[in-house]
Every structure is written in C-alpha cells, then in structure tokens.
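Let's do one together. I've listed all components of the complex below, 950 residues spread over two lines.
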Amino acid sequence: MNRIDPNLTRDLRKFGIRDWNDCYHCGTCTATCPLTAQGFLFPRKEIRLMQMGLKGPISTSVEPWLCYYCGECSERCPRKANPGELMMSLRRYLTSLYDWTGLSGKFYTSKIWELGFIIFFALLVILAFILILPPLDTTLTDQGGVKINSFAPPDLVEYFDWAMAFLVASLLVSNIFRMYLRVIWTGTKQRISLVEHVREFWHLVFNFSVQPKFSKCEDRSYWLYHWLLMSGYTIMFILIVVFLPWFQTENIFPAWHPQRVLGYYATIGLLVGLGAAIIGRIRKKEIKFEFSHVSDWLFLIMLSLTVITGILIHIFRVNGMPWATYISYIAHMAILVPMILIEVPFSKWSHLAYRPFAVYFARLKKSTMHQSR
Amino acid sequence: MEEVRIGVYVCWCGTNIAKMVDVEDVTRKIGALPGVVISKNYKYMCSDPGQELIANDIREHKLNRVVVAACSPRIHELTFRKALEKAGLNAYLFEMANIREQDSWVHDNREEATRKALDLVAAAISRVRHHEPLDKRSVSINSATVVIGGGIAGMSAALEIANAGKQVYLIEKSDKLGGLVNHFDLTYPYLYDAGSMLELLIRRTTCHPNVKVYLNTVIREVHGFIGNFETTLHAGTRKAEKLEFGNIIVATGLKPFDASRVHQYGYGRLPDVITSVEFENMLHTGEVLTKAGKIPQNIAIIHCVGSRNPGFHEYCSRTCCMVALKFANQLRSLLPDANIYDLYADMRAFGKGCEELYTTTSRKKITFMMFDQQEELPQIIKSVVPDDPPMLIFFREKISGIGVEVPADMVILMVGVEAHPDVKEIAHAVGISICGNSFFIEKHPKLDPVATTTGGVYIVGACQGPKGISDAVCQAKAAAARVLGTINQSSVHVEVTTAVVNESLCCGCQTCNLVCPYTAIRFDKDKKVSYVNEVLCKGCGTCGSTCPTGAIRSKHFTDQQILSQIDGLLTMALKQE
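Okay, and this is what the predicted structure of the assembly comes out as:
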C-alpha cells in the first residue's frame, strides 16, 4: 500500500519544486500537453502524486522523462502552478533516485557539494599537468603552429579519455539499470519477454539521435537548437575520445579538410544551442526558462567555458602562440573533466541516456498494456 | 334571480394567442351564446386600456359576470378581479379561460386551436353563470409571539420582535439557551470566538423586558389560527401554563449526526476517532491530546460523515467543509510540526470569505485528498505494526485513482446534521409539513422562504434545512419582520374560498378531519358533526371530494360550478362536430 508522506514534498522542494498546492486538478495541463498519451498521463497525475507524497509511484514513473518542457502547460495553467517546472524538478529528483552513489542528490541539493567537487577536480587536473608536464617546447612547427603534441601527447591523453569515458559510462549504465528495475521490474505488473525487448529497441536508437518527441512541442525552434547542440557535442565527443590522435594534430589543415570542417560544425552547433539557452534563461520570456535551478546555470556556464577554451586553443595554436595555447589547454581540461564527471552520470546531462531509455521503457510498458487488454 | 349578463373578452396577447387562434372568429361565435351581452377582443387585455375596457362595459352594459380568455389565471386572475372591483362588481363573479398556455402555445394547427379556444371559453361562460359573490373576511391579531427553540436563530428572532416593543415567549426544551452553537469554539470563515458572541446574545435575550424565556419547556399542541393561537406549556412537574399569541416562529434547529452509524470509521470502537463536536470541545479547553494523553503527530480530518451518502443522508450538511478548514487552521497554529490530512469528498467553499479560507488553509502544509463518498468510504483500522501510528486509514484517492494509506494518531469525523427525533410532534403541534429529510417545508423555496403554508407560522434556522449561523440569523430577522408586519396591520385577510359543512347532511364520520392538510376541520362532540375553521381553511377542496355524503361544499368550487363548466365544454365541442 502506498503510504502518504507529507515530508516528501519538503525534500522535493530542494530539487526546485515551488508551491505544489496551487494546483486544483482542472486537467488543463494534461489536455494541453502535445506529448501525453493514453497510459502515460502527465503532468497532472505527477502533481497529484507529489501533493500526496507518494514516493513509491513517483519513483517507478517514467512520465517525467516523456515531458520535453515546452512550457505550454505552465502557460495555460489557470492557477499558475507551473506544472512544467514541477516535471523538471521531478526529473532532477528521479536522477538522484537512480544514482546508487548518492552523489547526485548531494549535487542537486547542496551548492557546497557541487562547487566543491568541481573545484577539487579542476585543481587535480591542473596539478596533474604541472606534475607530469614534459619539458616545454616553445618552438613552432614548419607551418608556424604550436607543437601541441609535445605538450600533451595525444596517446597519453587518449588513454585518459578512455579511462574517464569508461568510468562515466559504467556509472551511467549502472544507474540506467536501476532505472530499468524501478520502471519495468517494480512499476509493471507483468513480465516482458526478451523478444519484446529486442523488438522495441530501435525506439531507443531513434529517440537518442533525433528526439522526435521534442519536435512535437508547439515551438519547434527549440528542437532545432537542441539538436544542433546535441549533434555538435556528439561529433566533438567522438573526435576527442575515438579520433584524438587524428584530431589533436600539429598539422594546420586547409579550411575544407574534414578535421576542420567537423570541428567548426561542432563548435557552431554548440555555440548556437548554448546561445539560445543562455539568452532564453536571461530574458525569461518563455515559461520554460523562467525558473533556473543552480544545476541549469552551472551546466550552461561550464559547457560554454569548455567551448570557448577549445576555440582559444585552436586560435592560439594556428597563430603560433605556445604559452597561450598551453594555458588554454590546461584551462580547457580543468573545466571539461569535472563537467563530464559531474554532469553525465549525476546531473543534468544524464538525460542524454534517461530520455531515450524512458521512451524505450515506455514502449515496453505499453506492450504489457496491450496484453492485459 | 336576476338576469345573467355576461361580458366576454378575448385577448390576443400580442401575437402569442392571435397567431394560433382566430380571435375574431372566437369573439363572433361566443357572442351568439345565451346570456352573453357583449363579446370583444383586444391586443392586451391585461394592459391599463384593456382593464379600462372591462370596467366601462360593466358600467355601460350593466354586466354582472365577466369572462376573460387569455393566459393562465396564475398570472392575471388577480389583475382582472381588481378591475371588476373597481367597477363595483364582486371579484368572484369572474372566470378566466386559459387559451395561451393550454392552447396557442402548445398547438400548431390554427383551425384546431381556434376550436379548442371556443370550447374553453364556452366552458368558462357556462361556469360563470353559477358564480356567487363572496365577501373578504379578516381576523384580529394578538401581538404576542411564541418562538420555539432558544438557539441562535430563535434568540435572534425573539430579540428583533422584542426590540420592536412586542411580547415574545421563548420556549427552550433544554436547560440553557444557545443550542448547538454552545459547542463551538471559533466560527468560520473569520475565526471569531463563538462563546463570547453567544454569551452576549443570551444576556440580551434573558434581560430583555419583552422576552419571557421558558427553559426545560415543551409545547405539545397549539390551537387556533393566525392572530389567535393558544397553547399549554409543559415544564416537567411544574403546573402547566396557558399562553395566547398571534404568531409562531419555529427555530428548533438540527442535531449532529450519530457517527457510529458509519461502521467503516470505527467511532466508539477506536478511542482516537472523535467527532467534530468533541473536537470543538477539545479546542475550547486548548488541549488537543489523544486518549492516551499524547500530543498527536498525524491528524486526519474526514469530511461528509453521514452527509451526501444515500445510506445515511443524501443532503449536504453545508457547514462541515468550512468547519474542517477552520480545524486545520487551528491545528496548524497549535501543532506547527504535525502532519494534517484532510480527506474530503468535495470541497464546498461557497459564500463570503469561504473560498479565501480554503486558499489560506491550502498554503499551510495540509495534505488534501479526495475520496469517493458514494462508492468507497475510507476504512479506519488499528495498526498492528509496532512503532507505527495507532491507526491507518485506507482509501482510493479519487483524483489519482491510487489506493493509499494514511497514518493517524487522531481522526476527526466531520459529522453532518440531521433532524431531532421529535420533529414530527413539533410539525403536528403547529400544523406544518416536513420533507423527506425531516426538515420543515417553507411556503415557497424562493419567494417565501420563512413562511409556511399555515398562516402565522414561520420557520427559521437549521430546522428548515442545514445552514450556518449567518444564514440562520438572516432567516430569523426575516421572519421577525414578517411577524411585525402582520402585527402592525392589526388584522389579516383570510381565504374566502373555504369549505362549509352542511350540518344536516354530515354523518359525523370524521373522514374530512383526517384528510385536511391544514388541521382546519374539527369534530363537534355535542352535535356529532364536523365543522370547518374558516380561518385555517385554504380552500384546497380535499375534504369536499372525500366527504361520502356530499355534506361539504367548497365555496367557488361547488359541484354545480364544476359540472356546468364540463357541460359547457362538451356542449360546445359537440356543436362544433
């Protein structure tokens, strides 16, 4: 039986939920939502669970991840109860529930923990560079560029990249497994066959790469911004983790060379996406940008700084400015490493996995609904 | 017998009648009937020129009967009666034929509708020949008033009348004034203190020179009629006292519902399940504690106990939702860290200040949940798990559709209100009716909400239906104004179309005594015949149609009048065939 827990709402407040009692359940939000569907009703249902403090049903619900926060519901809410922001806060809460290390909850609810973690790893990175730095070579290549590979040997950096990718991925995968246990194992009465698991799998891939649900929101421009940001990041990620020896090069290729074209595309995609989000959050014109949690700003700032330092590395290297290049490189890594460590498994960025998996799990759940009918 | 001279007037009612009934044709054909001196039609008979037309014709053509074929007599019978009186003719020498509601509005064949109009007018003409002039009568008014029930409504009515300088006898069954409000701590929605308010009212009432308060006293029977009632007071072993008075205000209120009837809630079995009345007393003493003497940490409030459920009472008790919100507020102030749960069926917060009370309360960390009052009442059970709160409430939360459990140290049942067990005796004593829910029935729910069908008897406060203090006091003052108005006139008109018993035909079977809804017929033991109190009689005709020997004649509805009306209808219909 689901026990009512009035203290749950007190805890949820730290994840960004404001006044949950303003809602009087007219259902306008659910009626407005372009994404809600039979069997997966939101946001009204989730607000009700929250008001009553029903931790069980909240922790097994997949619905918060099916919401892409277009803000239509909050726009139309006659009580100004901000259902969209409540869903956003629930996603933060769920992220902390999936995480077995308990760090996610700490980062979301305590600024000291979050900033402390970032500063600690930033210092660690700087320290590592100072300690293992080979003798600095300030001479330039024949093309007049900085000899960056002598400063940060790509094979060494790539080992580090792989190690970090493995760490982050294993944390994220274990958390996804915990999400699966909650949503499918606890949250579904019937067992789902392996065949079903395989049959529905393509939804995961499709949703990960295109986010078709996001594009159903009324204002499609944000789907575009988000897609530019995501594709830019993914390309950059692949270039750095998989092709670093080819990407981090001392050669200065002509402008049309794939190394430069891909790099420029990724950078522009990132800048456009980030710009739209930052401007939106500053102007607060759309409801989806009206309330910014610390974690929202931190993510935007850190990613922007990563992109800017990356651009600086490129400019300084091509123009033969060794000291500036090296300092930019250290700064780039000092921001990038804690950002990846904190964001991907524990915070806002984990949605890159939770969202497509949620669509996949929802499809699995739906198959049981058909069976029971 | 003087010659019957009838004037017939057919109304067009603009196009309402004229578009479906050929008024010219009706006027012409009716004019040929015997006794009809004049037959006219006019656009609006009810207008001033229309009435003037009738009055002039009465004077000019020496008419002594008038028929108007127009709308329903409910609407304009009085208008035309007055027109007759203006021209010096008795108002009862008039008959109306309804050719609008019963004809033009409900038919779509003009020819048939015109035929029907002719039938209806012919019937009225046939009837009006047998009409007799009836005289208006009036009775004098005793200026004293009896108020039954010393609650907040009874006292308010009594004070209002007493302040106008008239004598009031206030009869209270229990040993103190104040009624149900005696149990209240604060009132909603403004959280005023009920005690100090009541104390002031009781002091004013008991000290008033024009109010005589009788405690521990009941009334079993009331004799007489408006302006001239009398009764005997019964007060334990004390000598019975006789009272004479002109008006009665009934303010007997309601009583709290017996919560043990709802077995799911375990009232009486579980020590910490208490009623809202008991909780009011707890708040009054300032100590909110469980039976074990502990401060409760989980308090649940359950709405609609005994109300809005066909198994108990179908009606809404109207005040409990707001009292529950008041409790939640008071609890939040007393126990800032306690968990307060409010289980409602529907939150009814109408009226001044009430929605606002809900809004403020909803911001005080109170968990509101909805249950299904019709299908599935919550179940309260004793918890068996150690370290758990002593009680668990199980129910299906209606908005989410999820089965939930609520832990509780204390459960407050918001009991509704219901009629006192002696409501039938009171109704019988003063001659008023009760509805299916045992509330007294008002004369008209909208237009005459405090009067009853019995002249001089008024109902105020909760005995007329569940209501809060403000509404009860409003009704009390309204009834007081009605009583003072009657007293001020010093006499009142009474119904003239009453029933009369022909003593030589009456066999003394007393069937009429039993059927009379106004207790207007009594039996004369010496003469062994029944007689009608013409002041109480409303002329409903029930006795006349029941009387096996035909001894009862209803004035203005005599057998001859009704039979000739039917006769006229059929004769004209046959003629048209």
